[in-house]
Design goal:
Strand order of the largest sheet of chain A: 6-7-8-3-9-10
Radius of gyration of chain A: 23 Å
Shape of chain B: globular
Structural class of chain A: alpha/beta
Shape of chain A: globular
Distance between the termini of chain A: 39 Å
Number of domains of chain A: 2
Oligomer: heterodimer
Strand order of the largest sheet of chain B: 6-7-8-3-9-10
Largest sheet of chain A: 6 strands, mixed
Distance between the termini of chain B: 38 Å
Number of helices of chain B: 11
CATH superfamily of the largest domain in chain A: P-loop containing nucleotide triphosphate hydrolases
Helix content of chain B: 25-40%
Number of helices of chain A: 11
Largest interface: A-B, 52 and 49 residues
Helix content of chain A: 25-40%
Radius of gyration of chain B: 23 Å
Chain lengths: 309, 309
């Protein structure tokens, strides 16, 4: 068996003079949840479309379950479950009717269809809503139904494009528990998200910027390897004035507000916590404490995207 | 000074649904106030009542000293509101959209150029001023919508899920603009489904089924949580997770890549928990009690409220 369930080798896509995806290589192992992060327009969707065999690469190749995505697109699509933020559910059909419709598309018939539908319905925990019109469902329930519809044919590979966009925290946690369950049963998951706290659910993440992958690793590895300098947590007031002051202090790489405190990253050896405190105080900020802080994945994102830009 | 925004026992009934059910709040001038809650909690309805778009069924609201909706004309030029689907004109350029909204809000011509300049710089949209809005990326569109909402320099700004689907870099730009205005005295009322965004607010209200569950600083919301979160490093989370969830007092188990988070009803004897996992054949590398995330705190109070009624 191949080492990777999804593999891209030097994948490149040009549209005229514009290179949307530029020499991208990565591999996703069986049962792994792999997060794909990057700003809008960085090339994520184009990469995903090539992996699904929907468009052909200009050069390089994508493999899914060992099959070449360009030449064997048909057989690949049977093995992939694809769900996007704008998954087309039928608003005027019920939950059960939608599942039935998608089961039909995948060619699941008779008893197999009936069994698989109740299995999926139970898995996504929508059995009590089976007769509800999709139009009446909340965003969270819709997304769970969309995920259900995309796994009816028991795909080994799941490609989820911003599955939780606009979904409330409780529904989001349930959706992630569901994704984890599927991975535990052996599904390989490629997922895009803009929510950094969600990226923490992934075994590994990669960050894409202007068509390139800028770093890949587990969230813990990236926090340890991609962030230079030291992060401090500063308890101070007034907070927003402090933020403006902090950003302009020489040696401060980045500053943001985190949980009513200031989160400041300083360049290596540039500023001690004492100097940071003195400089803020000199600008009229009342500082009650400066302590060590933990870099966040957002820090990583901002740091690598800033360097690559 | 008095509260910038306040409401007392505010209610809104749509047919047989009580969308907002007796909400009372008081928000200081210059405060960043957030509302989080599941779909259908009543966040949007609350915002719309506070900025006079819909009329309450009962109760009272007051913004900048004016009774809403009766005296809204006195303060309307000081209010800003951005809905989830803010309408930009796709076929107009960035600059033309800004001019259009400036005219609607009767921004004096002599102020317009300076304000436009400042907001375009802060949003990093300056290089795109002649680009049609429909050709901007999602993050840029959202920043332009914010610029248009801010062109009349509102003193109170209401944002309804402003950054859904927006990448982290654009989101940071977006908040950076807001912090600058808050430092100058603007009051911000924002609803969000993102917990890391909620963490940027000074105070946070949790809503569910039209009611206010709790309202406090993010730090206090975390420390008030009576549940304990235990992080488990297990080489094989697939074996560890099911056993962990069966342990006495464990309410839920979630996977974060190779780590597991178990939520317990109260305090737990870590040593005992570890021993019983190991007795069940699960290898545990490390185990510790971790600080609950804002999401943990939110979900706890939501579940307690759902089970209570």
């Amino acid at each position: 068996m191949a080492e990777f369930e999804i593999e891209c080798k030097d994948l490149t896509k040009r549209f005229g003079a514009f290179t949307a995806v530029d020499g991208v290589s990565f591999g996703v192992r069986k049962g792994e949840i792999f997060g794909f992060l990057g700003p809008n327009g960085c090339g994520k969707s184009t990469t995903i479309r090539m992996v699904c065999g929907l468009i052909s690469p200009t050069s390089g190749a994508a493999f899914v379950g060992g099959l070449d995505a360009t030449n064997e697109a048909e057989s690949i699509r049977q093995r992939i479950g694809y769900m996007s933020q704008k998954f087309s559910l039928y608003d005027d059909l019920t939950v059960a009717e939608n599942l039935e419709f998608f089961a039909g598309i995948y060619g699941i018939r008779g008893t197999a269809r009936k069994n698989r539908m109740s299995e999926v319905m139970a898995l996504i925990d929508l059995t009590p809503y089976r007769k509800a019109l999709v139009a009446s469902l909340s965003t969270g329930l819709r997304q769970r139904l969309a995920l259900g519809a995309s796994i009816l044919h028991s795909p080994e590979i799941l490609i989820l494009d911003e599955p939780t966009s606009g979904v409330d925290p409780l529904s989001r946690r349930r959706l992630w528990n569901l994704i984890n369950d599927l991975a535990i049963r052996g599904a390989t998951v490629l997922v895009t998200t803009h929510a950094m706290d969600e990226a923490e659910h992934c075994h590994r993440v990669t960050m894409m910027q202007s068509g390139h992958l800028v770093c890949t690793g587990s969230p813990t590895e990236l926090r340890a390897s991609q962030i230079t300098g030291t992060v401090y947590t500063v308890d101070c007031a007034p907070l927003f004035k402090a933020l403006n002051v902090a950003i302009s202090i020489p040696g401060v790489a980045d500053a943001s507000v985190l949980g009513s405190r200031l989160h400041v990253r300083v360049e290596d050896g540039k500023l001690t916590s004492d100097t940071l405190q003195t400089t803020l105080t000199a600008s009229g900020i009342t500082v009650s404490s400066v302590g060590p802080g933990e870099p966040t994945l957002e820090d990583v994102f901002v740091a690598v995207a800033g360097e690559a830009a | 000074m008095d509260a910038a925004i306040s409401c007392m026992d505010l209610r809104k009934q749509f047919d047989d649904i009580m969308a907002v059910d007796g909400v009372s709040l008081s928000i200081r001038p210059g405060e960043v106030f957030g509302v989080v809650g599941p779909d259908g909690a009543g966040k949007t309805t609350l915002i719309r009542m506070l900025c006079r778009i819909i009329e309450p069924s009962s109760g009272s609201a007051n913004v900048l000293g004016a009774r809403i909706p009766q005296q809204v004309d006195r303060v309307i030029s000081n209010l800003g509101y951005m809905s989830q689907r803010f309408s930009l004109y796709g076929d107009l350029t960035v600059a033309e959209n800004i001019n259009f909204f400036a005219e609607i809000h009767e921004v004096p011509r002599r102020d317009l150029q300076e304000r436009t300049q400042r907001l375009l710089r802060a949003s990093r949209l300056e290089p795109f001023r002649t680009r049609q809005a429909q050709n901007l990326s999602g993050g840029m569109k959202q920043k332009l919508a914010l610029v248009c909402t801010l062109i009349h320099t509102p003193k109170v700004l209401f944002l309804d899920e402003p950054t859904t689907g927006v990448d982290p870099i654009s989101r940071r730009d977006f908040w950076q603009i807001l912090y600058g205005l808050v430092a100058d005295g603007m009051t911000l009322f924002v609803s969000t489904p993102y917990m890391d965004e909620a963490d940027r607010c000074q105070r946070l209200a949790l809503m569910n089924r039209g009611r206010l569950l709790t309202c406090d600083t993010p730090a206090n919301l975390r420390s008030k949580m009576t549940r304990t979160v235990i992080e488990v490093d297990a080489p094989d989370p697939r074996v560890a997770a099911p056993l962990l969830s069966k342990q006495d007092g464990i309410l839920a188990v979630e996977a974060f890549g190779h780590r597991l988070h178990a939520t317990a009803a109260r305090t737990v004897d870590i040593g005992q928990l570890r021993a019983s996992l190991e007795a069940g054949g699960v290898q545990v590398d490390d185990m510790r009690i971790v600080a609950p995330s804002l999401e943990d705190a939110f979900i706890a109070s939501l579940e307690e409220s759902n089970s209570g009624g």
